[in-house]
Design a protein that fits this description.
Number of strands: 11
Number of domains: 2
Helix content: 40-55%
CATH topology of the largest domain: Methyltransferase, Cobalt-precorrin-4 Transmethylase, Domain 2
Radius of gyration: 23 Å
CATH superfamily of the largest domain: Schlafen, AAA domain
Strand order of the largest sheet: 3-6-8-7
Largest sheet: 4 strands, mixed
CATH architecture of the largest domain: 2-Layer Sandwich
Strand content: 15-25%
Distance between the termini: 50 Å
Structural class: alpha+beta
Length: 318
C-alpha cells in the first residue's frame, strides 16, 4: 500500500489563474474582492461553483493557497462542501478528496463569479451567495465545538486536557531532559525540542505544553527530569528559562508561565504559552527556523512562506 500524499495546499487550474488574480487586484476598483487574500477569492469561487456552477476537474494544477494559511472557519467551510457533496461524514477521513472537491468547485465557479462581479447584477448576487454560503457553513460550524481561548484551555483540569489528546492548542512532551529511548539525559536536544514547540505556539494563538505526558496520553511524570536537577521544581523552571533564553531569546521568557500538577500521583508541568507580539525564530546549530501550529503539530515554514505568514499575522510591524 502506498503512503497517502500529505495535503499541504489548495490548487487552482492554471488556465484560471489570471481570473483569480483579476478579482483581488488592488487596482480593480469594481471588484469587492480587491486586495483580499487569495483564500477569500478561492472560497467565494468554491461556494459559487457549489451553488450553481458544478465541479470541473483541474487540467493543469497551480498551487494557490498553503493549508497553513487557512483558518479553522475556512477549513470548516471546505469540509462542509465535501460532506454536502458526498452526503457522508466519512469523506472527512480522506483530506486529499476533501480538498479535491473544493478545488473542482472553485474551478467550476471562478468564471461565474468573475462575470457576476464585473456585471451589473452583483449586488443582488452577493446577497444570494452570502445566504447560500451561510447555510452551507452552518451545517458544519454550528455542530463544531466552540473554539476555546488560551485562558479557557489553561483553566481546564489537566486530566481533561490529557483525556482530550493533543490539539491545535495542546501538546504533550515526555520530558525536558530525560531521553526515554536512550535512557539517559540529553539536556540540549530535548530542551531545543521543547523550545521549538514553544515557538510554534508563540507564532500562532498560544497553547499549553504538558511535560511528563507521552504521545499515547500515558502519565510519565517528571521524576527522571527532576533527578537531574536535585529533585527541585525551581531548578526545573530555571533550566526551562535557560533553554528559552538560549534558543528563543531572553525577551520571550515572560510569555511562558509554568504550573505543576499532580496526576496519578506523578508530577506534570504545564507550560502556558502566550501568543507573541512579534514573530519568533528558534536558533539552533547556527540556523534560524520558523514554526507555526497547524492542527496538532508544529510545522516549519520556508523563507518565502514565513515572510508571507509574518506579513499576514503581524501587519503592523515595520
Amino acid at each position: 500500500m502506498t503512503e497517502e500524499k500529505k495535503v499541504d495546499r489548495l490548487y487552482v487550474d492554471k488556465r484560471d489563474l489570471d481570473d483569480f488574480k483579476k478579482l483581488n487586484d488592488k487596482l480593480q476598483k469594481d471588484s469587492p474582492f480587491a486586495g483580499s487574500e487569495n483564500k477569500d477569492i478561492f472560497l467565494a469561487a468554491m461556494v459559487t461553483g457549489y451553488h450553481e456552477g458544478g465541479r470541473v476537474p483541474l487540467k493543469t494544477k497551480e498551487g494557490y493557497i498553503m493549508k497553513t494559511y487557512l483558518h479553522p472557519e475556512d477549513l470548516a467551510l471546505i469540509r462542509a462542501i465535501a460532506i454536502a457533496e458526498e452526503n457522508n461524514l466519512n469523506v472527512l477521513l480522506d483530506e486529499q478528496k476533501v480538498f479535491s472537491i473544493a478545488e473542482e468547485y472553485a474551478a467550476g465557479g471562478i468564471q461565474i463569479l468573475k462575470a457576476k462581479v464585473f456585471g451589473e447584477g452583483y449586488g443582488s448576487y452577493t446577497k444570494k451567495l452570502e445566504s447560500e454560503l451561510l447555510r452551507t457553513l452552518e451545517k458544519t460550524v454550528l455542530t463544531q465545538p466552540k473554539r476555546q481561548t488560551l485562558e479557557e484551555v489553561a483553566e481546564l483540569p489537566i486530566s481533561d486536557l490529557i483525556k482530550s489528546g493533543e490539539s491545535n492548542s495542546v501538546e504533550f512532551k515526555s520530558s525536558l531532559i530525560w531521553d526515554y529511548e536512550k535512557k539517559k539525559p540529553d539536556k540540549s536536544l530535548l530542551g531545543m525540542i521543547v523550545a521549538r514547540t514553544i515557538s510554534c505556539f508563540m507564532n500562532s494563538d498560544g497553547g499549553v505544553i504538558l511535560i511528563g505526558v507521552g504521545n499515547d496520553k500515558k502519565i510519565l511524570g517528571l521524576e527522571n527530569d527532576l533527578a537531574q536537577l536535585d529533585g527541585s521544581t525551581d531548578n526545573f523552571e530555571l533550566h526551562l528559562t535557560n533553554m528559552i533564553n538560549k534558543y528563543l531569546g531572553k525577551i520571550k521568557g515572560p510569555l511562558v508561565h509554568v504550573k505543576f500538577h499532580t496526576v496519578e500521583d506523578k508530577q506534570v508541568a504545564a507550560l502556558i504559552v502566550k501568543k507573541s507580539p512579534r514573530p519568533v525564530y528558534i536558533k539552533y546549530e547556527g540556523k534560524s527556523e520558523f514554526y507555526i501550529r497547524s492542527s496538532n503539530s508544529c510545522q516549519p515554514l520556508d523563507v518565502s512562506e514565513a515572510t508571507e505568514y509574518v506579513r499576514e499575522h503581524w501587519p503592523d510591524l515595520p
